[in-house]
Design a protein that fits this description.
The complex is a heterodimer of chains A (about 350) and B (about 300). Chain A is an alpha/beta fold. Chain A folds into two domains: about 230 residues, P-loop containing nucleotide triphosphate hydrolases (Rossmann fold); about 100 residues, no CATH class. Chain A is built from eleven helices and eleven strands. Chain A has a seven-stranded mixed sheet, with helices on both faces. In chain A, strands 2-1-4-5 form a four-stranded antiparallel sheet. The longest helix of chain A is centred in the middle third of the chain and has 18 residues. Chain A starts with 18 loop residues before the first strand and ends in a 7-residue tail after the last helix. Chain B is mainly alpha-helical. Chain B has one domain: MetI-like fold, CATH 1.10.3720. In chain B, helix 3 packs across helix 14 and helix 9 packs across helix 11. Chain B is elongated, with a radius of gyration of 23 Å. The chains are: A alpha/beta (about 350), B mainly alpha (about 300).
Chain lengths: ~350, ~300
């Protein structure tokens, strides 16, 4: 992928990914008591997550509600303090970075939130919302050009630039999300973390916003960390996909690999729930219904976290945590008994991999 | 009493110019203002408060009589064309005294209310926004302070002062008057603190100061504004009460509390001496409290 922002890259090496998340852990203490708080446990929202994101690439982060997707995003953004692990962005570890250094980093890393009704300050006009980034980072746009540049940004995200003096509540959900995108673009970032950017929108509007994000990526060379619980949306926009379950990544790889040579039973179950818009239902894998609820992240199961709902679980799964490795399918899977791939050409090799992974 | 205008509203045809307003402004305060300006009670309260403020600044507009100048030959006269509210024991014009007494009440009301609101905004937003230990310390001190009754605490504290001026009174009322407001601000800030637009501002690298002043306070101050209007009335009443029981201002100062205190021995024989200042005091308190209620209704979207 061509890197249009290479000139402002800031001297990071060619091989260095834009973002490298390294064994990131975020635990929330559960405390009790009004005056004297004492800790009675921890919620392991994000428990050892690692992935890389290249410039101009889109990585989808998928999982059920409460699996830790948003916590991962918030920790990368520095909105939550990481318990341990590292977030390497443009060759720099953001964990433990001072607030002045962090402020400079924020010019290159922005966020789009899920709820367009909660992510815009109701007391500010669109002009103020979109130009606030330039008041915080006052070297981007000179004050006398704020208005003009804000109108350009509105046009870029497909809004009427004459609506610049309106308040957020005078716009529809999709339009508000475009305002949020314009605000994120105002600092000319290299990475945008989109935390379920379309899941609060109508289906017809979802496609518009996803297409807008794709067009912006082509135009500006943005990288996206695209968080979603909807696998079909992710497939539409992502180059690579990471599937999360209870604070851990269970499958990570190219979009085609994860979707066509699905290895983890959990991913398979998620994919089987995606509606297929086709008259020919024969090629469709059978719908897998998962039993029970997601276990509490305060007390996750031993070994493999998915074993309590997995139809292939064995004693090994309870004893040993499966590492995230590549069982010769071209992408990473954290499972002792990975599914045989759909891909018929690789069927023979996959039967061998149905046995427990030798490593760890 | 507020029911009648509310039930009438849906029947009112939506005028064209109001639709335009909706498009142009449409913020919460603009909506509130649109609703308020249609209510006669709102204008009544505002007029009374306006007259009181004018009387406090230039009492000469309402009376040319010196409130301190007594004529012993005219003492204890009933209300007449010459002396609207009658005259007191020293033959001083009661109307002039009530007009001049407005200054103390209004000054005390404004100083105390604005000071307590400022304390509440600063400490309340710091406690609510930062949370943790800062919040625990501020909140626990507030809780302990909150347990002291204002008037009782005021009586005890005022005993300590030899000279009691308006300043002393204000100080005492401020010392015991900030707790409720602080709790109000803190809880409103806590409710706004975790909104996505606050996270968006943090992700942009906004400073704590910018986040509090630009994002949190504009969205968290409505309850304080409403409650503050009510406390104007409460403070006026508290000043009069403290002065009445003899721990507030002393003669020769002119204040409503002193006037009412002077008249208490003659309630049965010369009731007008108590009636008129009492009525004015009640009217002032009532106007501020009613204004607070109207503001609360207008700012509460659930009422619409």
């Amino acid at each position: 992928m061509t890197d249009t922002h290479a000139g402002t890259g800031g001297g990071s090496g060619v091989d260095e990914p834009l973002l490298r998340v390294d064994d990131l852990v975020k635990h929330f203490p559960i405390s009790r008591g009004v005056v004297f708080k004492r800790s009675i446990g921890t919620v392991k929202a994000c428990d050892g997550v690692s992935f890389e994101l290249q410039r101009g690439e889109t990585l989808g982060l998928v999982g059920e509600s409460g699996c830790g997707k948003s916590t991962t995003a918030r920790t990368i953004l520095g909105l939550e303090r990481a318990t341990s692990g590292g977030v390497w962005f443009q060759g720099r570890n953001l964990v433990g970075l001072g607030s002045a250094d962090m402020r400079a980093v924020r010019r290159d890393m922005q966020v789009i939130f899920q709820d367009p009704y909660a992510s815009l300050n109701p007391r500010m006009t669109v002009a103020k919302i979109v130009s606030e980034p330039w008041q915080i980072h006052d070297d981007i746009v000179p004050p006398d050009r704020h208005r003009q540049r804000a109108q350009e940004l509105l046009e870029m995200v497909g809004l009427n630039p004459n609506h610049i003096n309106r308040y957020p509540h005078q716009f529809s959900g999709g339009q508000r999300q475009r305002i949020g995108i314009a605000r994120a673009l105002a600092v000319e970032p290299k990475l945008i973390i989109a935390d379920e950017p379309v899941s609060a929108l109508d289906v017809s509007v979802q496609a518009q916003v996803v297409n807008l994000l794709r067009d912006l990526q082509a135009e500006l060379g943005l990288a996206y960390l695209f968080i979603a619980h909807d696998l079909s949306v992710v497939r539409h926009i992502c180059d690579r996909v990471a599937v999360m379950y209870l604070g851990k990544i269970v499958e990570l790889g190219d979009e085609s690999g994860v979707y066509q040579r699905t290895g983890h039973p959990y991913t398979k179950a998620l994919l089987s729930a995606v509606p297929v818009p086709s008259a020919d239902q024969s090629t469709r894998p059978e719908r897998i219904r998962l039993e029970g609820d997601v276990p509490s992240p305060a007390d996750p199961p031993s070994g493999c976290r998915f074993r309590t709902r997995c139809w292939k679980a064995t004693d090994l799964c309870a004893e040993q945590e499966p590492p995230l490795t590549d069982p010769n399918v071209g992408h990473l899977i954290a499972c002792h008994h990975p599914e045989p791939p759909f891909d018929f050409s690789k069927e023979n090799s996959s039967t061998e991999q149905a046995t427990p992974s030798p490593s760890s | 009493m507020t029911d009648a205008p509310t039930t009438l509203q849906p029947l009112e045809p939506a005028a064209d110019d109001e639709d335009e307003d909706q498009l142009r402004y449409g913020s919460l305060s603009a909506d509130a203002w649109r609703q308020l300006r249609r209510r006669p009670l709102f204008w009544l309260c505002v007029s009374i408060i306006f007259l009181l403020i004018v009387a406090a600044i230039v009492p000469g507009l309402f009376t040319s009589i010196d409130p301190q100048l007594g004529d012993q030959r005219n003492n204890l006269q009933s209300p007449s064309a010459e002396h609207w509210f009658g005259t007191d024991l020293q033959g001083r014009d009661q109307y002039a005294r009530v007009v001049h007494g407005a200054r103390v009440s209004i000054v005390v009301a404004f100083v105390v209310t604005l000071s307590t609101a400022s304390i509440a905004i600063v400490l309340g937003s710091v406690a609510g926004y930062f949370g943790g230990l800062v919040d625990a310390v501020i909140s626990r001190i507030t809780d302990v302070w909150f347990a002291i009754p204002t008037v009782l605490g005021g009586i005890v504290m005022l005993q300590l002062f030899e000279q009691r001026t308006i300043g002393t009174l204000c100080l005492v009322l401020i010392v015991f008057g900030w707790t409720t407001k602080l709790r109000l601000v803190r809880s409103a800030v806590v409710a706004v603190r975790n909104a996505d637009y606050i996270d968006a501002a943090r992700a942009l690298g906004a400073s704590h100061r910018r986040i509090i002043t630009r994002h949190i306070l504009p969205n968290a101050l409505t309850p304080l504004v409403v409650y503050t209007a009510i406390t104007f009335g409460v403070v006026i009443a508290a000043e009069a009460a403290l002065t009445f029981i003899g721990v507030g201002l002393r003669k020769p100062a002119v204040s409503w509390g002193l006037i009412i205190s002077d008249s208490r021995g003659r309630i049965q024989t010369h009731s007008y001496l108590l009636l008129f200042p009492g009525m004015i005091l009640s009217m002032a308190v009532f106007s501020f409290i009613l204004l607070g209620d109207l503001l609360r209704d207008a700012f509460d979207p659930r009422q619409r």
